[in-house]
Amino acid sequence: VTVVALALGGGLLWLWQDAEISTVGKESFDNALAIPPLAKSRVDKDGTRVFDLRMQSGEKEFKAGRATPTWGFNGDHLGPTLRAKRGEKVRVRIRNGLDEASTVHWHGMHLPAKMDGGPHQMIRPGGSWSPHWTVDQPAATLWYHPHPHGATEKHVQRGLAGLFLLDDKRSARLALPKKYGVDDLPVIVQDVRFDGAKFDHGHKMMRNVGFLGDRTMVNGTLAPYQEVGDELIRLRLLNASTARTYDFGFPDDRAFSLVGTDGGALERPARMQRIQLSPGERAEIVVRMRPGERTVLRSFPQDNYGGAWQQRFSGGDDAFDVLQLRAAERLRPSPALPSELGELEVPDGAGASRARFFDLKQSGINGRAMRMDRIDEVVTRGATETWTVRNDNGMPHNFHVHDVQFRVLEVNGEAPPPELRGPKDTVFLPNGTTMKLALRFEGPADPKTPYMYHCHLLSHEDGGMMGQFVVVEKGQKAGKPSGRHSGH
Ligand code: C2O
Ligand code: CU
């Protein structure tokens, strides 16, 4: 292991050079992929769909005979898949069965700030919280995870994460694979490192980007395989890793169809051979299987994307064999993919009333580290804005905005590539990237309760690479948020 220190941007960075990390050609794929169960729900008298989630600690055997201490929702590790329809009222009754305060944030969801589950909605150990809202956004693959300020990386790494799928009339009608766990597979990708039976989250920690594991798991399954029996398989990819970026594709470079991004469907499927996802991002891809074949969802080296950083820390080719797909000898025919998926609901920037600029530095955004009691930006309900986000910090960052799905207008002055043309809530900005985004804030106004924007490399977020914005009525002033992590 080589340790190198270098001065960059005034700060001292430590580079740990580790042995080569690559699992390509080395995975045994002998574990059947776990499919997170669909969460049970009931509909109460006023028509609200009610879910129950309990944060708890436990242990799980990732490797036979070795019990790893973990956290999970309604189980030992990860959480069930919540599912609701556009227009539905939902309520999630959350109990914190951990001995630490935490929160549950609905990543990608449009909802009132008080229900957002950010750092201001802490749930004390033994406490509960019951956020409720009306789902009002297109069908999408969203997710949920804790967001306690300063401890998000740790809480997610221990296993607190799950999917929240939204459906709508259009998704019900479109001929896309939609049998959950059969031809429509949740694929929650996380990198991991073990020290004996335990997770190793600190040992070879890369201080600059955060934790990088030496192998991957999907839905909490190491070396996973999935048997499939349909010609077309939809993979709902979520990068739930805390720092690692993946560039997904298949070893034979087959093209697949990208049908959705963070906030739902693209206008039309895009044929691609690779899809890069940084932490927090999602992509829905549809891949065609050949009868009897075995293929692998692989993450490829990313030197063409500025992933050189993480390769340097990995010291090797930084590639992973993530999930093996085993096709049956006879496959059920799938209908052809629709050529049009529908219209985007994200703003195009026309009539934007305000332009803001965000400079990403590991030490903070626009030169300021996160403070719970400071509102950084005040936006007017109903307004469309453009946000220009720049990273010239010498290391990779990404940028996530709560409450909205936005449109990418430009990447370094050019039109965005297909994977950035759908609804997005998180975008990857390798060093040397500037993006212009169009966002619209629908409210409701709440001058005292902020939403967050931040880097989703969780050690950066925890370290202060986060800011707060409130949505107000025109002319209204921001209130003073509580600076405390208030449990209730
Ligand atoms: Cu997925 Cu503010 O987070
Ligand atoms: Cu960052």
UniProtKB/TrEMBL annotation:
Pfam families: Cu-oxidase, Cu-oxidase_2, Cu-oxidase_3. Belongs to the multicopper oxidase family. GO terms for molecular function: copper ion binding; oxidoreductase activity. The chain crosses the membrane at residues 1-16. Keywords: Membrane, Metal-binding, Oxidoreductase, Transmembrane, Transmembrane helix. It comes from the Bacteria. Residues 57-170, 231-289, 359-473 form the Plastocyanin-like domain. Gene3D superfamilies: Cupredoxins - blue copper proteins. This is Copper oxidase.
